[in-house]
Amino acid sequence: MTHSSHLDPSGALSSLPLKLRVNRYRNRGKYDYQTVNTILDQTPILHVSFAPSPTDGDDSPPFPVILPMVGCTSSYPDTALPDKSDSRILYLHGSATSRLIRLAPPSHSNDESPNSGIPVCVAATQLDGIVLALTPHHHSCNYRSAVVFGHAHLVADPAERLHALQLVTNTLVPSRWENTRYPNVTELNSTGILRVEIASASAKIRTGSTGEDRGDLKDEGLRRSVWSGVVPAHIEFGEPVAAPTDLSGEVPGYLEGWIRGRNEEGERYAREAAVASTK
To answer: Comparing C-alpha atoms, which of 159, 149, 6 is closest to residue 76?
Structure first.
């Protein structure tokens, strides 16, 4: 990146402004790249918020806009890095005609000011369990969430656009890009890629069982009559359903392996989170 980020690879708060830090249950806050990027890359749908443009007209609704989009982190142009744990870039994939894509200024050089882009906030959340306490007041959820602030530019460089398209595709389903037809010119031109330079970010993670009221814990009658605990939750990818036009036959091994691995990983994490120390 061409500017300093408030996100500290060491995990320290560094210069993160007070208003951007996790304030409630501060022990759940994380500020390192690896934690934030992992949550972003493992969340299939990201939610992107931005302010409407003043040039949209007086009849345009004044409300903030939030859009569901797919995306992933990247270390471009340092694509030779062994992993993306230190990535400062977030790519977002969308239609070239969408409102956000049209609002974002094009990026022509890595030397331009990152603050010249459209300000955005990107949120990712994964539900890992529903925490049921003795009283609704202490109900909660186990979760992993990340919030990213940055400025978005429309990627104009053909090489970077192609890199981003391949990366977004393979982040959603590994090896999918290599096992499909290469996009044609029309398809490439109809797709927009936003490059978000991450200015600051944080993650918040809750694990563990219930946190009960002390008085309730002394009430054995209540504890015997009300079930309390955690219902683990994770995304369960089902058996693939072939398209009516499919002639390939069996489901490819790379897809079956990914589904099995993600399901096992999601179930394992959710169950481990349910019995972990409460944070």
So the answer is: 159
d(CA 31, CA 21): 9
Q: Other CB atoms closer than 10 Å to residue 37's CB: what's the count?
A: 28
Identify how many contiguous H helices and E strands the chain contains and give both numbers: 7, 9
- Distance (Å, rounded) from C-alpha 151 to C-alpha 146? 17
Pairing state of beta strands 29-30 and 46-50?
unpaired
Spatial contact of 226 and 212, defined as CB atoms under 8 Å apart = no
User: DSSP letter at 244?
Assistant: T
Q: What percent of the chain has pLDDT over 90?
A: 66
pLDDT digits (tens, 9 = 90+) for 194-245: 999 998 899 999 999 999 999 999 999 999 999 999 999 999 999 999 999 9
Report the pLDDT value the prediction gives residue 86, as an integer from 0 to 100. 57
Terminal-residue alpha carbon distance, the chain: 33
Q: What is the token pair recorded at 247?
A: 């002639």
Alpha-carbon span 170 to 265, nearest angstrom? 18
Q: State both tokens at 278.
A: 């409460």
Q: What are phi and psi of 167, to 5 degrees?
A: -65, -45
Residue type, 61: P
Q: What is the C-alpha separation between 266 and 234, in angstroms, rounded?
A: 5
Distance, in Å, from the CA atom of 278 to the CA atom of 209, rounded to the nearest integer, reads 6
Q: Token pair of 240, please?
A: 């693939």
- Residue 194 phi/psi, 5-degree rounding, is -100, 140
Question: Which residues, in sequence order, are CB contacts of 149 under 8 Å at separation 6+?
Answer: 20, 119, 120, 121, 198, 199, 200, 201
